[in-house]
Specification:
Blueprint: E1 6-12, H1 15-27, E2 32-35, H2 39-42, E3 50-55, H3 59-67
Antiparallel strand pairs: 1-3, 2-3
Length: about 70
């Protein structure tokens, strides 16, 4: 059974960085989304980072993928 619990994989200061990470995850077949996508563009850098979130059961696979980019 798939765990639909969402967990934060990474935080980025810019939406562009978050979108690059999401694109890599998408290419590997790992579902992800970006939280605070628009808020991170409005507030000063570091105040509200863009968060890439994944399903809990894919966290380790996603973490490994981003570490080897």
């Amino acid at each position: 059974m798939q765990d639909d619990t969402l967990v934060v994989l990474a935080e980025y200061n810019t939406v562009t960085e978050a979108e690059i990470a999401k694109s890599m995850l998408d290419s590997a077949g790992i579902w992800s989304t970006i939280r605070n996508e628009y808020m991170s563009a409005i507030y000063p850098i570091g105040t509200m980072p863009a968060q890439v979130v994944v399903r809990a059961d894919e966290l380790e696979k996603a973490r490994t993928l981003l570490q080897h980019r």
